């Protein structure tokens, strides 16, 4: 589960990580009130207005703007809220912005230059250890840095038995070229950041930029936080931060019905029982020249009600031009599934895409008979390849 920047910053702050302060706003009036409150608290007259969507690269897409007075806070917020923000990480249609973070301007001039660093915390899957990746080249496209100047990205691995040690935090501060107060503040920042990562059961922290202010404070200006879904049960407060508006709507509905559904780009809808068979089915569709429109595992109990629910979910995707049902009857009997398909088809009434059903296992022969004699626009197949070929034929 991903968090919005403002939620990620709240999480970091609760563990003592210094952040660029801000207040989230749903409309331009709230944004102005937020800016006034921040001015009272921090003395800043300038604010940054930041679109809150689950996508990076917002700055490049015009989703992060500096406001030098309250009129600008109002007009910029008005412009950003409701826009479809297109960034290098969104689709061409972009993501609708529902809220903005009004943040204090932290790039004020002072005794020293400001510097932008990159820092992330993640799991090194090769050896099962957490690692901190960091670079002096923050604020810009870290992918470009990784490609063209990979030696500018450092990695620090953490032994799970001892946790992050003091010397490691100092090494990071040193490699980032810091000294004096900024050095000391960076060691505190890194230690608090790592603790926040571990104790929140996160799977990714990406802070870009980490800023050294002109008065030598280290703070998180941005925060991308991904929480481990499997650990959410022990973080009720974080689980509540989920923003369903940011997620694929069909996936959200399928999840509520207990269906394992992942939306994909193709035109062949798939209904399968078991994740392994679903993967194999998608491979076969591709091999036969098609593209799966989704991954859908209906689970062990493929009864009429579930089949109907699955139909409805698949048909919500307008790209679907054919449906392939591939069910293995191990525990569930194929004739039951076949009857479920027929009942669902009749109940729904208005299915206008061809359906190919392949049922294998217990009572597969009876199931085939049921389908063939149903008088519906449903084709049966016994072999895997035969099913995929029939799909190609109806699409041609
Ligand atoms: P991203 O583009 O989605 O990664 O969003 P960021 O939160 O990283 O913001 C984009 C850029 O806005 C940053 O790299 C900064 O250069 C700039 N920015 C963020 N906060 C401030 C601020 O307080 N003042 C100024 N002048 N620029 C800021
Ligand atoms: Mn950023």
Could you explain the architecture of this structure?
- The protein has 396 residues and is of the alpha+beta class.
- The protein folds into 3 domains: 155 residues, D-amino Acid Aminotransferase, Chain A, domain 1 (2-Layer Sandwich), CATH 3.30.470.20; 85 residues, ATP-grasp fold, A domain (Dna Ligase, domain 1, 2-Layer Sandwich), CATH 3.30.1490; 147 residues, 3-Layer(aba) Sandwich (Rossmann fold).
- Helix 11 links the parallel strand 16 and strand 17.
- Helix 2 crosses helix 3 and helix 10 crosses helix 11.
- It is elongated and about 85 Å long.
- The model has no long low-confidence stretch (mean pLDDT 93).
- Bound molecules: guanosine-5'-diphosphate and manganese (II) ion.
- The site of guanosine-5'-diphosphate has 17 residues, from strand 2, strand 3 and strand 10.
- Belongs to the succinate/malate CoA ligase beta subunit family.
- This is Succinate--CoA ligase [ADP-forming] subunit beta.
- Keywords: ATP-binding, Ligase, Magnesium, Metal-binding, Nucleotide-binding, Tricarboxylic acid cycle.
**What's the CATH class of the largest domain, please?**
Alpha Beta
Fold-level CATH name of the largest domain = D-amino Acid Aminotransferase, Chain A, domain 1
Main pleated sheet: 6 strands, antiparallel
Question: Which structural class matches the secondary elements?
Answer: alpha+beta
Q: How far apart, in Å, are the first and last alpha carbons?
A: 39 Å
- Averaging pLDDT over every residue, what do you get? 93
Q: How much strand?
A: 15-25%
What's the oligomerization state? single chain
Helix content: 25-40%
- Enumerate the distinct ligands: guanosine-5'-diphosphate, manganese (II) ion
Radius of gyration using CA atoms only: 26 Å
Report low-confidence residues grouped into runs of 5 or more: none
**What's the architecture of the largest domain in CATH terms?**
2-Layer Sandwich
Tally of discrete structural domains: 3
Q: How many beta-strand segments?
A: 18
What is the overall number of helices? Answer: 13
- The CATH superfamily of the largest domain is known as ATP-grasp fold, B domain
Shape: elongated
